[in-house]
Amino acid sequence: MLLFSCFPTIKNTKVKKAFDVKKNIEQDYVLGAEIAEGSCGLVRKCRSKANGGEFACKTLCKSYKYVRREIDIMQYLSGHPSVVTLYAVYEDSDSFHLVMELCSGGSLFDRFQEKLPLTEHQAAVILKELVVAIKYCHDMGIVHRDIKPRNVLLTSSGKIKLADFGISARITPGQRLSSKTGTPAYLAPEVLAGKYSEKVDIWSAGVIFHALLVGYEPFDGYTTTEVLEALRTKTNLNFDGGIWESVISKPARDLIKRMLTRDVSSRLTADEVLRHLWDFLESESKHRNSERGCDSCEASLKNSEELTFANLLFV
């Protein structure tokens, strides 16, 4: 029997020395083409003058009120394989420049915008990689607060990396946050009430899982106001009829119900989502082996344990 050991608990004991903030990024890097742009800054490719390595440079204006917190949290989380790595920080009179790992595979949004819905197996593997990153953040006392496809990046090999900690916050066990922040379509309903925990990230991951499975998000609208109104009024999501009953398996329906429940005390933790996914992938492997007449499932189960999103890119 394989033990559930692929998602280790990471205790919040990590201490890192602060980066030495340097003054002139162009002494060390050649700034290149723009990759992305947001309301508070932009991201460009950059190349190291020392070794020719390619990186991403995120430039944030100093007037952005959360800039120092974003740098602090990125440094604190940096080094985990499921989180974008921060390598260096530069400062000039107007901006901070964050030299980060380059995720040249684009975002989850870019990759699958035209390919939804996915198979349950593909959706489960993507969710597993995403929730591994979320679990790490929560174990480290960080709530992301803006989990969405554009903030889930891919390396050139297809490895998922969680990015953009601009509105993330530190949180202690039992603490409740009150800032009403996030992206409306992925916002947990308790955020609107101004009292919430790290479980808002599980809700957001559930919205992504919903889109991966059936091709659309549960709360939609043409404007932000319409999306928020749907979130307030569409209190009971139905996963027992239509496409959910005819196409989606009972284990997948059970998982998404427990991620998208408005009862926060009943909503799964990151650990519980991963255990549910492990059971799902294990059951699926046994079913496939049974259909093939296999005498032993051990090798196939090991493959399920090690399966990553990168393996699915060309399926």
Automatic annotation (TrEMBL):
Residues 29-279 form the Protein kinase domain. The keyword Nucleotide-binding applies. Pfam families: Pkinase. Keywords: ATP-binding, Kinase, Nucleotide-binding, Serine/threonine-protein kinase, Transferase. The keyword Nucleotide-binding applies. SUPFAM superfamilies: Protein kinase-like (PK-like). One of its GO terms (molecular function) is protein serine/threonine kinase activity. PANTHER family: SERINE/THREONINE-PROTEIN KINASE (PTHR24349). Belongs to the protein kinase superfamily. CAMK Ser/Thr protein kinase family. SNF1 subfamily. This is Protein kinase domain-containing protein.
